[in-house]
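hey can u check if this looks right to u? its 131 residues, i copy pasted from the old doc so theres a chance i mangled smth
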Amino acid sequence: MDEQFILRVPPSVAEQIERLMNESAAGSSSNPEDASLDLSFSDDGRSGTFMIGNKSFPASLLDLPTVVESYKTYDDSFLVKAADIGQMVMVREDVDPAPEEVEYKHGLTPPMRDARRRRYRREPDLNVYMN
């Protein structure tokens, strides 16, 4: 199975990535410097930098609250499971604050908002039963 992760970027960065992919698919690239993407992490493995062209953005590696399955197809009729995705790289603007926790408390879609609190049972308080 492949190793995969979710890459969540701001809308302005998403437009640049889409433009780069369209240019590379068409075979026309005006400047190779503008067509570069790079993702590097610091020693802690959780914070890093996402570079697109000459612009850099802060990035954070976050754990998702649930495992997401990824599928791919070779013939547009049968799906084959490609990977279990448990982490997300969140790229943000310089002015946005860094996430405080290691786990992203929301899932990828609106119904999974605050998934841990709403969907999973709380740990029982064992001190109540000891008395």
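Residues 6-114 form one domain.
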